TrEMBL record:
Fatty acid desaturase domain boundaries: 78-288
Compartments reported by the entry: Cell inner membrane
Domain of life of the organism encoding this protein: Eukaryota
UniProt record, GO biological process: lipid metabolic process
GO CC term, one of those recorded: plasma membrane
Transmembrane intervals: 38-60, 72-94, 184-202, 208-227, 341-362
Protein name per the record: Fatty acid desaturase domain-containing protein
Family assignment from sequence similarity: Belongs to the fatty acid desaturase type 1 family. AlkB subfamily.
Cell membrane recorded as keyword: yes
Keyword Transmembrane helix attached: yes
InterPro entries: AlkB/XylM, FA_desaturase_dom
Length: 370
């Protein structure tokens, strides 16, 4: 059910439930912002994901679960769902001011072997967003798979260059200082040491499981990055000057989605325009702007659409192009988008429902043939 619920049940709920553009009133913002109860679901998710990962690693290592190849990868996929959700929690925590929250947010990424992300996100993405200089901004016409191939390696390179420049400014002149104090290197060494501990404690099969699970979580997380700014561009203040600065980040430079289901599940990450305008804001007080470009039916549906490049481009490209021009899509384009999304959602839902209830079923008999 860990596959059917997020990729069938949740998209259907997002499709049929009313949208949510309600914002916190000005008089309550300070009270809600300081309410510590909103930290509870963040840390519940954080602990739940760690518990599920350790349970799965121990189970695979001991041979209690994941004994066949099919079951092994089924557990990889299922455990990756909470891992991806915890990555969203990590994004929320690294933006908090308190050092404890930042550390826990960093752990969320280090657990998926992606510890350098918080440096790239804070130091680069929020400054360069919606420009060609930002590796994490997907280009118009770029497929999800092309984005993976370009953005993931570019993120490592960018963080390495940033760390080298930072150390030079801090007066580090020795080569060994640029190795020991480079956080990209130390993070990856620490992550490698953690994988070594997993191997020593739980064995080779558990190590392979952890690597596969981390890779899948990274791909799922980067898929969210792909759709957050796809095709949206900030204009240069002086178009005739190649060295001109870009306009400031506006609410039209991020894709929003007002669907209730994924909005609450992803801690209002879908109110992404306000997040980029006010990165310090905790999730509970983020505002929704109806003027922002809207994804077709929320992150749950959009994550399915972007897996199919032709369908994704057909549904989203017209909106991205018209948004960059300061215009709106036509009524005919809106109808075509709705048809495309609905047909894709029905096809994927029927296929995954067949897989869940008829191919896999509620027993392990189908595992044994693999």
């Amino acid at each position: 059910m860990a596959i059917w619920i997020p990729y069938v049940g949740l998209p259907i709920l997002d499709y049929i439930l009313p949208v949510d553009h309600e914002n916190i009133s000005e008089g309550r913002i300070k009270v809600v912002e300081k309410d510590r109860r909103f930290l509870i679901p963040l840390y519940m998710t954080f602990v739940m994901d760690l518990a599920i990962l350790i349970y799965a690693i121990q189970g695979v290592g001991s041979g209690r679960i994941g004994q066949t190849t099919f079951e092994f990868f089924l557990y990889v996929i299922c455990s990756a769902q909470t891992g991806a959700l915890n990555a969203v929690v990590g994004h929320e925590l690294i933006h908090r001011r308190h050092i404890i929250h930042k550390i826990c947010g960093s752990i969320s990424y280090a657990k998926m072997m992606y510890g350098h992300f918080f440096i790239q996100h804070i130091r680069s993405h929020h400054k360069k967003v919606a420009t060609p200089e930002d590796p994490s901004t997907s280009r118009l016409g770029e497929s999800l798979y092309q984005f993976y191939w370009r953005a993931i390696p570019a993120g490592y390179v960018e963080v390495f260059k940033y760390e080298q420049a930072r150390l030079s400014l801090e007066g580090c002149t020795k080569w060994w200082q640029h190795v020991i104090y480079n956080r990209l290197i130390t993070f990856n060494l620490a992550q490698g040491a953690w994988l070594g501990i997993v191997y020593l404690l739980f064995g080779q099969r558990a190590l392979v499981f952890h690597i596969c699970q981390s890779a899948l979580v990274t791909l799922m997380f980067e898929a969210v990055n792909y759709l957050e700014h796809y095709g949206l561009l900030r204009k240069k203040l002086d178009p005739t000057n190649p060295d001109s600065a870009y306009e400031s980040v506006k609410i039209i430079h991020s894709w929003n989605a007002p669907q209730v289901g994924t909005s609450y599940l992803f801690f209002k990450l879908q109110r992404h325009s306000d997040h980029h305008a006010n990165a310090y804001k905790p999730y509970q007080i983020l505002d929704s702007f109806v003027e922002s470009p809207m994804l077709p039916y929320g992150y749950s549906v959009s994550l399915i659409l972007c897996v199919f490049p032709y369908i994704w481009k057909r549904a989203v490209d017209p909106v991205a192009i018209t948004t960059n021009k300061g215009e709106k899509i036509t009524e005919e384009q809106q109808k075509d988008q709705n048809r495309t999304v609905l047909c894709t959602l029905l096809a994927v839902s029927l296929f995954l429902t067949w897989v869940q209830f008829f191919y896999i079923g509620f027993n392990t008999s189908s595992f044994k043939q693999f």
